[in-house]
């Protein structure tokens, strides 16, 4: 069986990462936020729009989250999350802190998480 060739970078779909802050009186679990994200996108942009935008939770540490989506549909995903007003009959506010091209830059710039440092170990010559 032959292996499929990977897509070249020019044909891959471009992704963007939304840094989000959740303002809610109780702590929301990761599963609850995934359900909230899915329901909000289905309600605002429908099945077809959700399939095209492909929102996906990449990082979650309450009250912060990073959501991946397609570059052309960033505004739709952002507006669908901003329009959420209630969760479990309590008011909720979701703030989009910013959009980035990589997860690492979204964490550094918007969430204030310091990156891990990688050090190269020099080997001694024998």
From TrEMBL:
Part of ribonuclease P, a protein complex that generates mature tRNA molecules by cleaving their 5'-ends. GO terms for cellular component: cytoplasm; ribonuclease P complex. It catalyses: Endonucleolytic cleavage of RNA, removing 5'-extranucleotides from tRNA precursor. Consists of a catalytic RNA component and at least 4-5 protein subunits. GO terms for biological process: tRNA 5'-leader removal. Its EC number is 3.1.26.5. Belongs to the eukaryotic/archaeal RNase P protein component 2 family. It is found in: Cytoplasm. This is Ribonuclease P protein component 2. Pfam families: RNase_P_Rpp14.
